[in-house]
Amino acid sequence: MGSEAMMDRTAQTEIQKLKHFFLLSRPYSYADNIARAFLVCGLYGAAGDATTLLITGTASTLMWLFLNWLSDWVQKQPGRLLPPLFLVWTPVAMTILLAAFSGPIALLALFVYVISILLYPWKSLIVRLGDWGPILRGVTIAAHYWFVITLMPPDTAAPPFVVFALACVLFFAHAARNLVGDIRDIRSDVHELPARRGFKPALRLTRVFVVGAFLAGGSCAVGALLTGGLVPGWWIWVLIPIGVQWTCLEILAFAWGRARPHHVGYVGHRLFVLTFTVMELLIAYDFGVNIGVCVSLCAFAFATNITYWYVPGKRYPTIVLIDPPLGELRPVRTQSQMLATARISDARHSIHADDECTVAETADATQGYPHVTTPRK
């Protein structure tokens, strides 16, 4: 009886681990990566090619798994299981098989994409890379964009200027989204830009990236007008979602920016995930991707956004519990330690929001954390 109970307990633990790694893959962005691949398919006139849609969508999802599991393997966040290396690299091996059918250029693009992903997770560990986190994320997006282009059938083509303009839109849009995600983690990722520079500078840079995405989209309309061609309609699908997101971000910053910047990042990042996925699907539809496919992916994006809250680690405790004797969780900070860290971090960031602020937290109050004193400016 004891042996059967132990086997049952082991099986339940393995299932919990699978759930844990599934949530660590950030399912809320599956649709975003697939939509970006379909956008390229539409741009190159392959919107009706089911095989190309399947290959690009599968490859994009696999590389998203690799990015997230590699990040967790590198960063080793408290409250998260350490993904086994075979799990981390299996998506890459599968993507290599898919890319091999498209030739050496696709394999080269995949190699560049993998290199960009290998560099990205270190932004939260290396101080000098912390300020460049949003740029690094934009580079991974651009590398993904190029990789998908190399998977297109050989008899397809697209206007070079439009290809470049869309690359700029995606680069700036996802750099902004990444920076808002860093604002969400302002109390835990101390090497990233918002934690080092403050909430207001991070918000200003987010605005710059958002404006860059808008201008990159509008440049196609201006170029068409100057050359006497038809004004492309897809740039409207850049303007509307970005305008909505920008408005929401400003409202959140006004409501919570001074006292709760991490709340601005949390809600703002969830909205960015949805609005940019919708933006990519609208552009894909404008390029000829079937409306049923676009609507289904949009519904999938909203459904999986529910999983955002359940991603284990960082500020929020893991929802998928692992039995300690059989699990592999790293030690999780106690509630008092987490509250102490939050108090210190909130005090530091309030200084960026208000120069007339002096903070002193003692080691007794923080239960072992170092004495923090910030002089009046």
Topology:
Layout: H1 2-24, H2 30-43, H3 50-75, H4 85-100, H5 104-119, H6 127-130, H7 133-150, H8 160-184, H9 193-197, H10 199-226, H11 236-256, H12 261-286, H13 291-304, H14 335-353, E1 359-361, E2 372-374
Antiparallel strand pairs: 1-2
Helix pairs in contact: 2-3, 2-12, 2-13, 3-4, 4-5, 5-7, 7-8, 8-10, 8-12, 10-11, 11-12, 12-13
Major beta sheet, strand line-up: 1-2
Structural class assignment = mainly alpha
Arithmetic mean pLDDT: 81
Tally of alpha and pi helices: 14
Number of strands: 2
Radius of gyration, Cα only, in angstroms? 22 Å
> Under the CATH scheme, which architecture of the largest domain would be assigned?
Orthogonal Bundle
- Give the DSSP E fraction (strand runs of 2 or more residues): under 5%
Order of helices and strands: HHHHHHHHHHHHHHEE
Q: Major sheet: size, sense and barrel closure?
A: 2 strands, antiparallel
CATH topology of the largest domain: Farnesyl Diphosphate Synthase
Explain this structure:
This protein is mainly α. The protein folds into two domains: 11-310, Farnesyl Diphosphate Synthase, CATH 1.10.600; 335-374, no CATH class. The protein has 14 helices and two strands, in the order ααααααααααααααββ. The chain has helices at 2-24, 30-43, 50-75, 85-100, 104-119, 127-130, 133-150, 160-184, 193-197, 199-226, 236-256, 261-286, 291-304, 335-353; strands at 359-361, 372-374. A two-stranded antiparallel ribbon has the order 1-2.
Question: How would you summarize what this structure contains?
Answer:
The chain has 377 residues and is an all-alpha fold. Helices cover 68% and strands 2% of the residues.
